Amino acid sequence: MADGAFTYTDGRVEPGETRNLRYAISETYLGDPVRVPVTIRNGDRPGPTVFLSAAIHGDELNGIEVVRTVAQDWPDANLHGTLVCLPVLNVPGFIAQQRYLPVYDRDLNRSFPGSRSGTSADRMAARLYDEFIEPCDYGLDFHTSTRGRTNMLHVRADMDDPDVARLARAFGSNVIIDGAGPSGSLRGAACEGGTPTVTVEMGQAHRFERGFIDRALDGVASVLAEYDCHPAEPVRWPGWRTVVERDQKTWLRADAGGIVELLHDRGDLVRAGDVVGTVTNPFKTETVRITAPFDGLLVGVLENPVVYPGNPLCHLVELDEPTIRAYERVQSGTMPERP
Ligand SMILES: [Zn+2]
């Protein structure tokens, strides 16, 4: 990109140009192309190249609206650099409104960076990766909770990598869950290939949730400001923040099959020993209580209120006492100073 153009096979997007294209990554049983929508916005001034992607799990919709809005509705406002906007990565899954690729239920998000001679999923991943991920300097990949559950907005990032940590903090979320991306995930492959990338998780599948979409758009503006792509002010401090390590989170699981009543919502603070929810039999004659093992925040909760033994009810992350105090100040309407 020495001359400032963004190039891909069969095309180039010049500085100051925005292009919407449908890029073929596979073929259907009828031999028709499977085409992924891509918008490339090349600013008229030089700067980093950033990808924004969504719906790599085909039923996780909130991110689609974030990426589409950035691609189409944002003012040009002195864009320095290039945005590669991929609102629907898993086109077959999106059409079927399901998480995985319909053929053999393959997870596109375990197929990266892909292979030109591998499975159908590998080949799709390879085309996406080589054309639109590998050329980027940073990336944001948007997800929601799996069907039947919901999440508060949080970022997942490998905080051991300073470039990834800078990106994660720039998004301005309260919660960052630390860890490398799973093998084969877009995030993991991009980070390994030299494109620092984080995952943004928010809300539930099969929905547009306006509050989350707006908060994520603020996060995108903050990230772009951090790298001087966009003349907004980055969110330096969201009032409180927790970076969750591996041993500071747990899934609270049902020990009995039954019907669930949760007594708290996503984003709620619970104290050690609090009853988070109950599992009852059909007659309500037997009740199993689920209690919080430590003080923390319910990052994810069940939406579909039925469980087998072992099914997760909620995802709890630990908060220390100063963070709890800051959380409570934000809840009561004041913005704490950065410590
Ligand atoms: Zn997902």
Q: How many DSSP-defined strands?
A: 19
In N-to-C order, the SSE pattern is EEEEEHEHHEEHEHEHEEEEEEEEEH
Please give the alpha-carbon distance between the first and last residues.
41 Å
Runs in which pLDDT lies below 50 for 5 or more consecutive residues are: none
Over all CA atoms, what is the radius of gyration?
A: 21 Å
Helix content: 10-25%
Number of helices: 7
Domain Succinylglutamate desuccinylase/Aspartoacylase catalytic: 46-226
InterPro entries: AstE_AspA_cat, N-alpha-Ac-DABA-like, N-alpha-Ac-DABA_deacetylase
Protein name: Succinate dehydrogenase subunit
Cofactor: Zn(2+)
Layout of secondary structure:
Layout: E1 6-8, E2 11-13, E3 18-27, E4 33-42, E5 45-54, H1 62-72, E6 80-86, H2 91-96, H3 120-133, E7 138-143, E8 149-157, H4 162-171, E9 175-178, H5 186-192, E10 197-203, H6 210-226, E11 242-244, E12 249-253, E13 258-262, E14 269-270, E15 275-280, E16 287-291, E17 296-302, E18 306-307, E19 312-318, H7 321-331
Parallel strand pairs: 5-6, 5-7, 7-10, 8-9, 9-11
Antiparallel strand pairs: 1-2, 3-4, 4-6, 8-10, 8-17, 12-19, 13-15, 13-18, 14-17, 15-16, 17-19
The structure holds zinc ion.
Zinc ion binds at residues 57, 60, 143.
Cofactor: Zn(2+)
InterPro entries: AstE_AspA_cat, N-alpha-Ac-DABA-like, N-alpha-Ac-DABA_deacetylase
Pfam families: AstE_AspA_cat
